[in-house]
Specification:
Largest sheet: none
CATH class: Mainly Alpha
Helix content: over 70%
Shape: globular
Number of strands: 0
Order of helices and strands: HHHH
Oligomer: single chain
Number of domains: 1
CATH architecture: Up-down Bundle
């Protein structure tokens, strides 16, 4: 079972953005599956978290460039939501590296699934409508 099921409603209609969204979801689902199966070593989880953080940061840079080019009126709020997720992932990484116990699959569920599904439906959907108008 995947943590985040890709739905067509998540598509924003910008090919590069949609492709990166799907890649991020696949990576998060892969980590989640390994955690649930109990097959992830500390090194593997650390690598996944680093890769997730890097891919998300690069993706946000793309979206923020698109917003800047389009002179998007809600760019500041959209970027603030991006920053919030990057901070959350950074916190997860720090807690993991410090060996502080918590259920990683629960943290991923709470932070990533919920954040992505809401963000796709709200911020990214509105961005697409404004850019494609």
């Amino acid at each position: 079972m995947a943590l985040i099921e890709w739905k067509q409603e998540f598509s924003v209609g910008i090919d590069d953005v949609d492709h990166e969204h799907q890649e991020m979801v696949a990576l998060i689902n892969e980590l989640y599956g390994e955690l649930k199966a109990g097959q992830a070593s500390k090194e593997k989880v650390s690598g996944f978290l680093g890769e997730i953080h890097a891919k998300i940061a690069a993706h946000f840079a793309l979206e923020e460039h698109i917003m800047q080019q389009a002179r998007y009126d809600r760019a500041a709020g959209h970027k603030a939501d991006h920053d919030l997720l990057l901070d959350d992932i950074g916190d997860i990484m720090e807690r993991f590296e410090a060996d502080r116990y918590f259920k990683y699959e629960d943290v991923l569920s709470e932070h990533l699934r919920d954040w992505f599904t809401v963000h796709f439906r709200t911020h990214d959907s509105r961005l697409h409508k404004m850019v494609s108008a």
